[in-house]
Amino acid sequence: MSEALSSYLLFSCAMFAVGLVGVLLRRNLVAMLIGVELMLNAVLINLVAFARFTDGQPGIGQVFALFIIGVAAAEAAVGLSIVLAVHKARGAISVDALEELKG
Amino acid sequence: MMDFSVALLYVFSGMAVAGGLGLVLCKHPIHGAISLLFSMLSLAGIYALLDAHLIAALQVIIYAGAIMILVVYIIMLLDLGSADAQTVYRKAGLMGLPLLALLLLLLGQGMISVAGDAAAPPLAQGPVVCPPGVACETDCGDGVDQDGDNMTDCADTDCAGVAICFGTVEAVGANLLGPFVLPFEIASVLLLAGIVGAILLTGRKPGELEPSVPPPAIQPGSIADASGSSEAQDTEGAV
Predict the structure, then answer these.
(1) Fewer CB within 10 Å, N side or C side of chain B?
(2) Which of A94-98, B3-7, B72-76 is predicted with the least confidence, judged by mean pLDDT?
(3) Is the pLDDT of residue B161 over 90?
(4) How many beta-carbon pairs below 8 A join chains A and B?
(5) In total, how many domains does chain A have?
(6) What integer pLDDT is reported at residue B81 of this predicted model?
(7) Whether pLDDT at A21 is above 70
(8) What does the pLDDT read at residue B237?
(9) Measured between alpha carbons, how far is B171 from B169 in angstroms, rounded to an integer?
């Protein structure tokens, strides 16, 4: 396989899977947040790859990538402060400390 | 040349996926954070391979710089090193894995069938071809504003696909501050909401003062402030 669009797409698929496995399997809230960051990055690869490989409006995919980076920064700030608040309230940041809603 | 970039693509992809796996497998949170750092830097290399140089630089500055510093600060501040060495994984999450495998199978199959073996088209070198009857920036490297819209060379969105302009600050910024200026402003409001939300979530609440600090005199607006902050927290959850 050469440097084709599908190799970038498959790579982003793998990154998304790794991030999702991190979110599903880890108990640590910080690790789960990092997994979400990996999933956002996988989407970013797709956007940049499609911006490079298609020739309609070449700049627009990168603009969307910039928006994703901004949203990820806001998400990290708010998410980590939620982690901090959980640690202050429960003394732990494992998801086990937060299972009141469990059926 | 082409073979070298293909090799770089595989090296960067492998490093990025290995960093992600390190995040999943490492028990100590700081090891996970460092492997995420490797992953982010390799992704910056991949964006550079895709000629998106501005995105690559921002990936290093924002992800590998700002967000990673934030994560490492939180890990050190909360002293998470010995927190969950025994119970790292959730057994219940294992039930999601077959579903994940099925999802990935379908997604990968769909991506291959859509994209096929399309190679990267070479970026345009020559003059920009204008649509008939419309003036546009034809020469993107001469410092002259051909179509008279006060946007010269790469700063004109007509030039976004040309090799010397693709992925530069000028070309991306022309789109960002031109057709996408409203989402740009909304993103700045979102970042402001993130700042306010982070301060509200982690700051000291009224009535939660440290004992060593003498309680301040009650201001007339303090009750209104308290209700306002809980409202702001609710909207933050919606964002």
Answers:
(1) N
(2) A94-98
(3) no
(4) 244
(5) 1
(6) 64
(7) yes
(8) 45
(9) 6
So what's the ipTM on this one? Answer: 0.89
Domain that holds residue A43: 2-94
Give kind and range of the element (H or E) at residue A14: helix A5-25
Give B-chain residues touching A3 at CB under 8 angstroms.
2, 5-6, 9, 119-120
- Contact between A37 and B83 using a beta-carbon 8 Å cutoff: no
CATH code, domain with A55: 1.10.287.3510
Per the domain annotation, does B239 fall within a domain? no
What Å distances lie between residue B195 and B189, B233, B235, CA to CA?
10, 12, 13
Question: Cβ A37–B112 below 8 Å, yes or no?
Answer: no
Task: Give the start-end residues of each E strand in B82-173.
Answer: none
Interface of B with A in 29-58 (CB under 8 A): 29, 32-33, 36, 39-40, 43, 46-47, 50-52, 54-55, 58
* B157 at A interface, C-beta within 8 A: yes
A8: exposed, middle or buried (Cβ count in 10 Å: 0-12, 13-18, 19+)? buried
